[in-house]
Design a protein that fits this description.
This protein has 692 residues and is α/β, with parallel strands linked by helices. It is built from 23 helices and 21 strands. Helices cover 39% and strands 17% of the residues. The chain binds adenosine-5'-diphosphate and magnesium ion.
Length: 692
């Protein structure tokens, strides 16, 4: 708001000033407080001089001495070569490109200070393109910081700007001193001053690896700011109003009575956690985690009947048509006998049917609607939406989720604020604990940590592509024995068309190889009606072998399918392989997953396949995935949240996360003025990123 209030200045100065200002802005550097927390990535030690006689190749050194000799050589190419001596030895300097003034700088007899990396040259130790300054000037008494920067913004300019900001900015403590003391951390000012200009002699290694207490203070502050904003987001949510959905109707016991199985203990537990949330007058915001096949759908059904029994409508949104259709089928079978009206809405529905569905949803004659993104189109309005369920929530963006929520807002005078629907997010991608504690701290988490009984773990086999024939006979054996199989075609990253072609070709080859078998094909480019027909055939057992691209990755549930072949498994990510493998092992028979690979394998691919071979535990797989790829993948829900951490590392700073969490609770409880100051310093208006 205050950007445009600068007084008019001389034009020339203004435009150069603006140019570097714009570059600084690009780094997020506007206010003095921004510069203060723009911290170095490394340091250079210019505080001492080295003796030429004791230099070793590979070192970055600084020496002072007299130019003993200097010439422009023409062979083997034009270059400037000089030799410098300090009495202890001789060092060569070499420039492959140079300006006349550089040549003057190293005229024979001059005394200079040079800096650069030593290597072994033709005549002995040398430095290529050294930095040359005059000899004899005072040595700095602190290490020289090197900052992250952007094109055209040099270190000296950035250093000067930061030095200035350090004089203007408020460096006073944002936390209660007793807290800082009890954690054994330095004060904010002390930490900042050390990091911007560590005294000579301090270990550069400890600084760069961020193990120094000054770094711990910064990382703690950052994690604390994140915990505080998440806690505030949670408070904000508690101030919102929702329709309480009491669990009084007879629907839930009737649903239970009609199920062909009884719930596992883990399912019972999460069902009651969700049930309790729904009875509150502020919106539920819960994440339901459970490995593939752990039975999340039936839990969603219990949440739905509680809302419907309390007179509200429910919407379930799934990321793909196949998945939405499968949910519809399953939920309709469970709920229609209870007189619950279930509708289905996807983009591929014929226009007339779609219109009818939209009308019924708006009129309130439908209790439960299941669909894809089609649910969030403008045309769709609800009569009394009370609960929103998102399956595979990480597949949706923040905006899409908000959009569906908004459809349930109703301005209720008596509540004083609009009522918003309760929200249940489901995900099979387990989120490691540290991530859950940081990025998802404003969500309540329910976990299904047990699979339904009678499942035997899937056996995973790694098979080289060269043994394809054996794989084919395995498929044949299984099908002859009355079971079904998936054949997943390789990912072709460069081109979707190529991927499609591969699937079509594979289908043709397998159909020819197995004339006695019905081989189906499903891929992303088929019309939804065709897709549905193939899937129905597979579900009925008419199709015995299903060739597929990764469209089957999420949610397909056919218990009689016991064999999964994945071609070029080395091209898939770990989470994806785990999802795919989760398609089998759903019935009582022994299931097998064959990961076919083509060598030579990269180290990462080998690690991935090894992980798949060694474990079927979704959490262990997620942990290894996090190790291999970093947190990005898990943050579907909080894409923006990642930017909030610049210095702390969730893997290696796990202990600090816990401390920050405790401190956040304490500050919110009894030190609101510190909360304000701390967030101002670290977040400056970015807290809103977390309010979704
Ligand atoms: P996911 O958690 O991957 O979404 P689903 O909800 O699709 O899993 O459930 C997988 C399969 O397990 C389905 O066929 C479902 O009907 C079945 N199932 C769910 N809960 C139980 C249970 N308690 N006992 C037996 N089978 C169950
Ligand atoms: Mg599911």
């Amino acid at each position: 708001m205050s950007e445009h209030t600068a007084a008019p200045v001389d034009r020339q100065t203004a435009s150069t000033a603006n140019a570097s200002e714009r570059k600084l802005q690009r780094l997020g550097l506007v206010e003095p407080s921004d510069f203060v927390v723009h911290l170095p990535i490394r340091y250079e030690d210019e505080t001492k001089l080295d003796r030429i006689g004791s230099l070793r190749p590979g070192q970055v050194v600084q020496v002072e001495g007299e130019i003993l000799h200097s010439e422009v050589q023409l062979r083997p190419r034009r270059q400037l070569v000089a030799a410098i001596g300090d009495g202890s030895g001789r060092l060569y300097l070499r420039w492959l490109h140079f300006y006349p003034n550089q040549r003057r700088q190293v005229e024979t007899g001059r005394r200079v200070r040079v800096r650069g990396e030593v290597r072994v040259g033709f005549n002995g130790c040398e430095i290529v393109h050294p930095r040359v300054t005059v000899a004899g000037s005072a040595l700095p008494d602190s290490l020289t910081p090197v900052y992250p920067t952007t094109d055209g913004l040099t270190q000296p300019v950035l250093r000067r700007a930061i030095r200035q900001a350090l004089e203007q900015a408020d460096l006073s403590e944002s936390l209660p001193p007793q807290l800082v003391h009890s954690l054994g951390l330095p004060s904010f000012e002390e930490a900042i001053r050390i990091l911007h200009g560590p005294p000579a002699g301090m270990s550069i290694e400890q600084l760069v690896e961020r193990g120094h207490p000054a770094w711990r203070r910064i990382k703690f502050d950052e994690l604390l700011a994140q915990q505080l904003s998440l806690a505030l987001a949670r408070r904000h949510r508690r101030k919102q109003r929702a329709h309480p959905l009491p669990a009084e109707s007879a629907l839930s016991p009737r649903l239970r009575a009609g199920l062909p199985f009884s719930l596992t203990d883990a399912q019972e537990r999460v069902v009651s956690e969700i049930s309790a949330d729904l009875t509150r007058d502020y919106p539920m915001h819960r994440l339901l985690q459970g490995d593939v096949g752990s039975g999340k759908t039936v839990v969603a059904a219990f949440a739905a009947v509680q809302a419907i029994g309390a007179g509200r409508q429910v919407a379930i949104m799934a990321p793909t048509e196949i998945l939405a259709e499968q949910h519809f089928r399953k939920l309709a079978a469970w709920l229609e006998p209870l007189d619950v009206k279930v509708a289905w809405l996807t983009g591929s529905l014929p226009l007339r049917q779609r219109r009818a569905a939209v009308e019924a949803i708006a009129a309130g004659t439908v209790d439960l609607v299941i669909g894809t993104q089609a649910l969030i189109q403008d045309k769709v309005t609800f009569d009394r939406l009370g609960l929103v369920i998102l399956d595979e929530q990480h597949r949706f963006g923040v905006a899409q989720r908000l959009e569906l929520n908004r459809k349930g807002e109703d301005a209720d005078e008596t509540a004083g604020a609009p009522r918003v629907p309760h929200q249940l997010n489901m995900s099979a991608t387990p989120i490691p604990r540290t991530l859950a504690m940081t990025f998802f701290a404003d969500l309540d988490v329910s976990m299904i940590d047990e699979l339904p009984p009678g499942r035997s773990p899937v056996i995973t086999k790694l098979v080289s592509d060269a043994r394809r024939d054996e794989v084919l006979s395995l498929v044949h054996r299984e099908v002859v024995a009355g079971r079904q199989a998936y054949w997943v075609c390789p990912l072709v990253e460069e081109s979707e068309a190529l991927q499609l072609q591969t699937a079509v070709d594979t289908h043709a080859v397998l159909a020819a190889a197995f004339p006695d078998m019905s081989v189906g094909l499903v891929h992303g480019r088929m019309t939804p009606a065709d897709k549905q027909e193939v899937m129905t055939g597979f579900r009925n057992g008419d199709v015995q072998l299903l060739v597929a691209t990764t469209v089957i990755e999420v949610g397909v549930d056919v218990p009689n399918a016991c064999l999964m072949i994945i071609e070029h498994a080395e091209r898939f990510g770990l989470a994806q392989l785990h999802q795919l493998r989760g398609r089998v092992g759903r019935g009582s028979g022994q299931s097998v997953c064959v990961l076919m690979y083509q060598g030579p394998l990269s180290a990462v691919a080998r690690e991935r396949l090894k992980a798949m071979y060694e474990t079927t535990d979704g959490f262990e797989i997620a942990r290894r995935d996090l190790e291999q790829r970093g947190p990005g993948e898990f943050l579907g829900m909080r894409q923006s949240g990642q930017e909030l951490l610049r210095y702390a590392d969730l893997e290696s700073d796990g202990g600090l996360v816990e401390q920050a969490r405790q401190a956040a609770a304490e500050l919110l409880e009894s030190h609101p003025e510190h909360v304000r100051k701390h967030l101002q310093r670290w977040m400056r208006g970015r807290q809103d990123l977390l309010r979704s």
